[in-house]
Each structure stands twice: as C-alpha cells, then as structure tokens.
Design brief:
By secondary structure, this protein is of the alpha+beta class. The protein has one domain. The protein has seven helices and 22 strands. The strands form four sheets. It has a 16-stranded antiparallel beta sheet that branches. It has a two-stranded antiparallel ribbon with strand order 1-2.
C-alpha cells in the first residue's frame, strides 16, 4: 500500500513545501512532539511544540489556554489504527478503478460504476495523480461503509462560552449502507433495484417543541443523480421534499449539518477535491479508549434495537459510560477562567501522517466556499475539518475522536473499531463564538445491524412523526 510514509526529516521538507501552497498546512515539525513524554499536556505554556501540526484556528485555542489535551503515542496501545481485514480486502482493488470526469468511481475495464466495491477502491495513492484528492475521499467513504449499517441516539447540544449547555435535542439515527460492507454483511443486503448507495433517517425524540420531526435522505450510486431528501414536520402533518443542497445548513438551528455527519457526508460528485499537501498533524483520539476500549455485545434475533426495528440477527451493541466530555460539565469549571465551555476534555492528540484535501462545492450557492480535511494515510479516517466562507475566512471546525480497531469474538469479522465515548464531536463556530457538541450524553450504538428497507420509506416517516 503506497501511502508515502516518510521519515520525519523528509516529511519536514514535504510539509514545509505544502505550507507554501495552502493556507492551513500540516507541517511536519515533529521533533518536540515526538520527544515529549507520554501524556504531556498541550496548552498555553507549550503550544509552540504543536505549531504547524494543527489547523491555525485550533492551535489558537491551545495558545489561549481555552483547549488542553494530552499528547499520546500509539506504541504499546492495544489495537491497530486500521482493520487488517479491510487492508487485505483493499489489496484486491489495486488498478481496478478510476475516477471519471463527474467524480464517480468506475471500473477501468467497463467504464461503469460497479454494483459493489469491497474495501478501499484506491489502495495505492500517488501524490502526483491529479485525481489523488478524489481518491483519498472515496477511500474515506469506503472506510465508513466497512463499519456497517448502524443505529444510535445522537444528542445535539448548543454550547455558549459563558453558560455551557443551553439546549439539547435528542435524535434517533439510522444509517444503512448498500455498498462496501464486509462480505458477510454485504450479502444480507439483497437486491438493490433502486441503485441506492446509502439511506439515512433521523427522528427527533425530544424536546417536545421539535419532537416528531423526521429527516430522510436517499443517496444514489449514479454520480449525476441528486440525493432525494424529505422532511416530516408534525405541525404540517405531511412529508415535504427538500433541496439536497440544504444538507449544508445547520440541523434544526445547530452548527452541525447533515453534510458533516461522521466527518464528511456530502455527495462526493457535488465537490471538486484536490490534494493540496501531505505531512503530519496531531490527530484526534479518545484518551481513555486507548487503554480501555470497551467490549461489544453480540445482538440476537430478539434484541430490541429501536422502536422501528423488532430485532436483528447480526451485529453488536456497544455501550458507552456516561462521563464528562466537555469542560463545562466539571463542577469546578468557571466561565472566563481557563478552558472554554465546550473544550473536549476526552481528547488525546497523536502525531499521524496525513493527506491534506481541499473540497470546493460545484454549487456556487453552497453554504461553504471550501473545506480542508486531513485524512490519515493508514486508516483514511479524518481529523479536524476546517470550513471556510466564499471569501476564504475560516468559519468553523468539525472534530470527531478516533479510536483503534480491536479483535472481537463470536462474529463473522475479526476486528471492530472500538472506543469509550461513541461519536462525541465538537463543532467550533468561530464567527458566532459558540459550539455544538454531538453525542453528549453518550448512548448505546448497534453496529452491522440488518436495517429493514421499509423504515426508510416516506410512508413510514409519517407514522413515526408526532
């Protein structure tokens, strides 16, 4: 797998070159970070050791003392940065696919989008390839698909600088992927006559003023076919089609959009992707999860998953303990003193080699002018997403914690990504000086669930609304 993992000295030259080309580089000045003892806390007194290894807007938070995180190392930790099974499956794809003029993955021989792709479509990335940015993005997406269809409850919290949590909504979320799952789960999907790539459904459970609002999205394999999206609002008592371009808008007034999702969830053909650099950065990981990743429980046919699903004969449930995730949850926290209210206290920083990808929307009316993303060269997971307006000013940054893959027992796959806090993420809104935090409090998540197609039909969401 040719991912250009270079020694630190060479990486320094590569990343400094990238720094001259892009406004938010990941320069590989690694010596101070590599020599720092395990657990060294990055903050206002030593922020310079991370200069060039974080997006500038995030480094400023550490410089001010508004963020503080331990710097960790992967050596000696239980687990691996990627799934060995995914890597092995991906090797079979070498040279089989390319990206067409629309940004769609197609078979080199047939010129068509394959019915199924298992693993990364592009296991070998060449930085000199004009399509490298798009290929990195597709590898990231197939990393998501490999994790399987899932169900969880995703609380969304509005956080102010001085008051902490202002408002919370609770959303029941179902994601179904029709491609890219490990073979045992891919086979259970069955026929896909509509040529769908994925379906998502989000049902708001509380509070009462928004309870029963439902969002539904279908994404198709065809690169030139737009998403179909619908919303059910109880006050109107009917399903309304919505413009898929609105997926960039904040969900119910929060700062997190549907296109953010698990880091990036826009339709890839709607963007132009460009590889604008490579180097190292401080990746975001769960801190406690590095030592104690938790344990999944196999689902059985009679296991209750949600009100929409009777049970499942596949998958695992992962339960997460309710722990403090942001600074304002600590009783000793005081506004204006030290950490900002939404500072992620669960976060650990680990130096990682990354591809730096710029995404520019093809639609000139899209909310953001560009997004800069940092993808791990070995796992293709993402760290710190910077979102800019059309004039080039940074507006927001979306951060989700990563965790390691662990061996699991009693199932058709050998490795699962396992953590302690689920999908808790922080969206910093720099223009409004506020944040939105997802996954607080944490909730159980079911992975590799056999979700029935009927829960993603428009007729069903009418019944599920208030």
């Amino acid at each position: 797998m040719r991912t250009r993992l270079v020694p630190s000295g060479v990486a320094l030259v590569v990343a400094i070159t990238a720094a001259l080309l892009v406004p938010s580089p990941a320069r590989a000045t690694l010596t101070d970070v590599q020599e720092a003892p395990e657990g060294t806390v990055l903050g206002k007194d030593n922020w310079k050791i991370a200069e060039g290894l974080l997006p500038p807007e995030i480094l400023e938070l550490y410089k001010k003392g508004e963020y503080s995180s331990p710097i960790r190392k992967l050596e000696g930790k239980k687990g691996t940065i990627y799934s060995p099974e995914l890597v092995e499956a991906s090797k079979k794809n070498a040279g089989k696919f390319r990206v067409d003029e629309n940004g769609t993955v197609i078979d080199v021989d047939t010129g068509e989008r394959p019915d199924v792709i298992i693993g990364w479509p592009f296991p070998d990335i060449d930085a000199n390839d004009p399509q490298a940015g798009a290929k990195v993005m597709w590898n990231y997406l197939y990393t998501l698909y490999w994790a399987g269809s899932f169900h969880t409850e995703s609380p969304i919290n509005w956080i102010s600088r001085d008051s902490g949590i202002l408002r919370r909504i609770s959303v029941d979320v179902h994601f179904k992927y029709y491609d890219g799952q490990p073979p045992p789960f891919q086979e259970k999907i069955g026929e896909n006559d509509l040529n769908i790539l994925s379906r998502t459904m989000a049902l708001v459970r509380e509070p009462a003023d928004v309870e029963g609002i439902v969002s539904l999205n279908w994404r198709y394999r065809e690169g030139d076919k737009q998403d179909q999206a619908w919303s059910y609002v109880p006050a109107l008592r009917r399903v309304r089609p919505i413009n898929p371009a609105n997926r960039a808008d904040g969900f119910l007034g929060s700062d997190i959009s549907q296109d953010d999702g698990p880091y990036f969830d826009g339709k890839p053909e709607d963007f132009n992707f460009k590889l604008i650099g490579e180097g190292y950065m401080l990746g975001t990981f769960e801190n406690d999860g590095l030592e104690d990743p938790g344990k999944p429980v196999p689902l059985t046919e009679n296991t209750e998953i949600s009100d929409l699903i009777d049970g499942s004969d596949t998958g695992w449930r992962v339960s997460y303990p309710n722990v403090d995730l942001i600074a304002s949850q600590d009783e000793s926290w005081k506004p204006g003193e030290g950490l900002v209210a939404w500072a992620p206290t669960y976060l650990a920083l680990i130096p990682r080699p990354v591809w730096i990808v710029e995404a520019v929307p093809k639609n000139p009316y899209y909310l953001y002018g560009k997004q800069i993303m940092y993808f791990d060269k070995e796992s293709f997971r993402g760290y710190w997403k910077s979102k800019f307006d059309w004039k080039g000013s940074v507006l927001a940054n979306w951060q989700l914690p990563e965790s390691l893959f662990q061996k699991v027992e009693g199932g058709p796959i050998e490795y699962m990504r396992m953590g302690k806090i689920g999908g808790a993420g922080v969206m910093n809104n720099f223009k409004q000086d506020r944040a939105t935090v997802s996954g607080l409090p944490t909730a159980d998540t079911e992975w590799y669930v056999d979700l029935p197609d009927e829960i993603f039909e428009t007729s069903r969401i009418i019944r599920e609304g208030k």
